[in-house]
């Protein structure tokens, strides 16, 4: 378990001081024993593996953060809750969702990552062999959910192949993931461009993945750690830096001990361990706390190119991505574990994809 080093308490430093001293910004020593309460929204259908592992292993407690988990049925509900101040962080609400909210004026800040890739394109098992290339989707009825990250990836991949998704196939949008799966199971659509959060339901319905989102676009980003800009003003975002620190530690634990991700998910996923493992340790799903700014910016460009967001020329998306908190959390771990190359490797990765 990660050891959090405490220091002199804020109370001890201010209780006997003057009003002038009490009003000064807290020093690093002052903050060392301060704890932060963070309400985290996540997808209740799939949980949030890095969050679950960090809680199970005590990493949030170690860094002085108290977590309250709040589950949501879909990304829109979760992001609306963030906008309304009902939660402090959204963890598994995609990338397209937060970017769409930003395009509509939300003061969101992307500060880290959770998932890259991992979204299945599904069909009935007996039809699975029909879909080997993107050209095989021509003339088909394809179900999606608007502002799903996988929908952005799918339409962008078609466009890059020279396939006109408005004319060469029929895309039908559904309101919920469950409705989408029911449509493909009943034959109302031929395939479903789905999300990892509905994969367990798809398996239970006997559907089969014919492709994955990161087969179409390798290493594309999905679930980002998103908060509101105003919340980062307290202690220069110290609480959220610690939050990311715990996720980094959980990321390593999940990689080295994937069985712990299964254990941590049992509370949320009421299915057997084999199915849980197929969800949280699926090979196409890369769980990483890195914000991966370059890929977020690339998706923003894709959303403009395919008409998802319009009239956003005055929005500089770089202003809505904070990479400093993650970098600071990683540098602290490197300083605390100087002989451990793992965190140094993460820093190299960070530098490569956060220009």
Fold topology:
Blueprint: H1 10-14, H2 19-22, H3 28-31, E1 36-43, H4 49-57, H5 59-63, E2 65-72, H6 75-83, E3 89-90, H7 96-103, E4 108-113, E5 115-117, E6 120-124, E7 141-144, H8 149-160, E8 170-173, H9 177-186, E9 191-193, H10 199-204, E10 207-212, H11 213-216, E11 224-228, H12 238-256, H13 258-265, H14 273-280, E12 285-287, H15 293-305, H16 324-336, H17 341-353
Parallel strand pairs: 1-2, 1-3, 7-8, 7-9
Antiparallel strand pairs: 4-11, 5-12, 6-9, 6-10
Helix pairs in contact: 4-12, 4-13, 12-13, 12-16, 13-14, 16-17
Short summary:
This protein is of the alpha/beta class. The chain contains 17 helices and 12 strands. Strands 8-7-9-6-10 form a 5-stranded mixed β-sheet.
Question: Which H/E pattern describes the elements?
Answer: HHHEHHEHEHEEEEHEHEHEHEHHHEHHH
User: What is the first-to-last residue Cα distance?
Assistant: 32 Å
* Radius of gyration, CA atoms, in whole angstroms: 21 Å
CATH architecture of the largest domain, by name, is 3-Layer(aba) Sandwich
Mind describing the biggest β-sheet? 5 strands, mixed
Q: Beta-strand level of the residues, as a percent range? A: 15-25%
């Amino acid at each position: 378990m990660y050891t959090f080093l405490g220091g002199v308490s804020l109370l001890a430093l201010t209780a006997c001081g003057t009003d002038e001293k009490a009003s000064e910004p807290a020093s690093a020593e002052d903050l060392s024993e301060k704890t932060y309460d963070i309400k985290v929204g996540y997808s209740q259908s799939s949980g949030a593996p890095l969050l679950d592992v960090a809680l199970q292993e005590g990493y949030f407690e170690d860094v002085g953060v108290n977590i309250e988990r709040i589950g949501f049925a879909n990304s829109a509900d979760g992001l609306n809750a963030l906008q309304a101040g009902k939660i402090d962080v959204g963890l598994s609400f995609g990338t397209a969702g937060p970017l769409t909210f930003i395009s509509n004026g939300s003061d969101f800040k992307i500060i880290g990552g959770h998932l890259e890739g991992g979204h299945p394109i599904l069909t009935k098992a007996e039809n699975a062999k029909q879909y080997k290339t993107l050209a095989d989707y021509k003339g088909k009825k394809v179900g999606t959910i608007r502002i799903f990250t996988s929908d952005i990836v799918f339409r962008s991949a078609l466009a890059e192949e020279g396939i006109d998704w408005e004319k060469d196939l029929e895309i039908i949008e559904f309101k919920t993931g469950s409705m989408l799966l029911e449509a493909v199971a009943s034959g109302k659509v031929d395939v479903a461009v789905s999300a990892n959060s509905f994969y367990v339901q798809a398996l239970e319905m006997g559907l089969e993945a014919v492709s994955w989102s990161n087969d179409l676009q390798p290493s594309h980003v999905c679930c980002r750690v998103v908060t509101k800009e105003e919340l980062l003003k307290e202690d220069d975002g110290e609480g959220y830096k610690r939050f990311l620190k715990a996720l980094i530690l959980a990321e390593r634990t999940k990689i080295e001990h994937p069985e712990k991700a299964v254990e941590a998910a049992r509370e949320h996923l009421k299915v057997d361990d084999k199915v849980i493992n197929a969800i949280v340790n699926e090979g196409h799903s890369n769980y990483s706390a890195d914000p991966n700014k370059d890929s977020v910016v690339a998706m923003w460009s894709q959303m403009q190119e395919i008409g998802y967001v319009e009239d956003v020329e005055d929005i500089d998306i770089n202003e809505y991505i904070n990479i400093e908190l993650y970098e600071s959390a990683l540098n602290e771990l490197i300083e605390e574990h100087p002989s451990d190359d793992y965190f140094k490797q993460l820093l190299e990765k960070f530098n490569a994809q956060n220009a």
